[in-house]
Fold Phosphoenolpyruvate carboxykinase [GTP].
Amino acid sequence: MTATIDPQTTIHEGRPTTHQGILAWVTEVAELTQPDTIHWCTGSDEEWEQLTASLEATGTFTRLNPDVMPNSFHAASDPTDVARVEDRTYICSVDERDAGPTNNWMDPAEMKELMRGLYAGCMRGRTMYVIPFVMGHVDAEHPMFGIEVTDSAYVTVSMRVMARMGTEVLSRIEEIGEDVQWVPALHSVGMPLEPGQADVAWPCNDTKYIVQFPEERMIWSFGSGYGGNALLGKKCYALRIASVMARDEGWLAEHMLILKLTSPQGVTKYVAAAFPSACGKTNLAMLKPTIPGWKVEAIGDDIAWMRIGEDGRLWAVNPEFGFFGVAPGTNEHTNPHAMETIRKGNSVFTNVALTPDGNVWWEGLENTPAEATSWKGEHWTPEIFEETGELSSHANSRYCTPIKQCSILADEYDDPRGVPIDAILFGGRRKTTIPLVTEARDWNHGTFMGATLSSETTAAAVGAVGVVRRDPMAMLPFIGYNAGDYFGHWVGIGKDNDAAKLPKIFYVNWFRRDDEGGFLWPGFGENSRVLKWVIERIDGQAAAVETPIGHVPAPGSMDIDGLDLTDEQLAQALAVDAAEWRAEIPQIQEWFEKFGDDLPAVLWSELDTLKARLDA
Ligand SMILES: Nc1nc2c(ncn2[C@@H]2O[C@H](COP(=O)(O)OP(=O)(O)OP(=O)(O)O)[C@@H](O)[C@H]2O)c(=O)[nH]1
Ligand SMILES: O=C([O-])CC(=O)C(=O)O
Ligand SMILES: [Mn+2]
């Protein structure tokens, strides 16, 4: 039986909407996908309990010991569904040119026909959840609504952590009326159940499509239940679709953390930083400074939406409501604030290990258990790891935790206007070449740094790990349009606004290695020393040396009091090696050539300037 939109078919206090546009779309989706039941999500605690209970019943969730991790669950995905699938991600713009050379493209009509075939009957035997959500504040000047329809209770539970959702949001949509802007986001795991067929713990489909239709501001996702593939408010909306909106409306949707930094003198600065997936955003956003008197408060750990304010400054908000953080490597030393946040519970842990006492564990965490159940559901011990190298947790395993639990969350997090950004950092994971910190000469030079950003690939996306690739502004997988136009948009922000009021741009690299392969810089809390230098540069206090690639800290200008690092190590971390940079030039050249005439001319001039400075 196919469900129709009838309050009788809904459970709890969920109700269909009075918004005719949304009702029509949900009806159309239900007719196509044929779910048994339709559930309009309220976001209530009772709903959470009902959903998590049903996830326990299907074996998707294991409830953790409430004494150690209250109201929290362990989930293990299908071993083939563990990360974003970039090769299955499409930007289906009307014109192929608008997807640009960095995105997969297919004609939207063709893609729709193909996907309608996949979606036909794909929710049979399942409940279809309708999730009204808003990215950013419901009281924002431009509230960014969406409706995710999904056949995954796991996604529904996770969306409740990651976005403001439920009845309150739906009521606000209805209040604004039929003209309200909202993004339809359709998701299915792609595994219908025939009558009598038992469900599996992690339904998914070998065929996967993560598709954005930029002109229609619409998202269709099929076949995956994981992270950025399935929680459609996150990468699909808040980055791919929002970047298109931002291009059209003159703002920026970026893969950036936002933090508030307060000096011992009580001076406050706001920093945004773009690092590729699994390259340190969450860690920096929650940093515990090792230098006395300095304080960091978190505002966001993954996405920043930035608009020029009436005062000419660039104001940033975090559109999300939770953290979807990389678990491995997170511990009391690297990220004590994340640990404190997680321990409050109300979290979903995916693809980590489960310990016999009902807790979670992952590589890098303290107190290695004598035994555990690995993310693959297998018996795991430290000895097994010694012998076989088998890890207890997937490298891209994640915790999904409400942001409100973060003890160092800045009050400004809840301000719909956001915060004025003083500095933007670009950073990647590079063993060589890129110094610990470099200051751009101006906005265009900073845009060049962002546009040429390079990083070693990580486990956050399916594919080889450790391969150096260009990841412009850490947005390679997330720019929803032609990246050449995106660079032009960045250049335009600099041209159309008062340079003195825009943030200063810096390029950082926590991941440079010595000859033995060890990190040259201790990172984590010690990164506060770099933040301090950045702030002091902005305030004209710290000294810098001009180099061909920009300004780097002058000897003695960085606070290294109490740091366990030799002068030689610091010098190596900060070094600008002309030979390494000369080797970089042809790679940048080749990268730029991809964009043909769509690359802004100022970026070619920046490359010429770099060459000339290296040769001088
Ligand atoms: N060596 C070193 N490793 C770091 C540093 N900061 C973060 N890491 C490691 O990098 C990995 C990813 O860090 P995250 O902060 O979760 O990365 P992210 O950018 O938030 O990742 P996404 O959520 O995928 O966007 C973890 O294993 C960290 O331990 C650092 O300063 N130095
Ligand atoms: O989107 C995801 O699955 C997780 C994430 O933050 C990223 O990969 O940048
Ligand atoms: Mn991310």
User: Anything to note?
Assistant: The chain has three domains: 7-65+88-249, 253-321+410-615, 324-403. The CA atoms of residues 528 and 593 lie 37 Å apart. The radius of gyration is 24 Å. The longest strand covers residues 127-135.
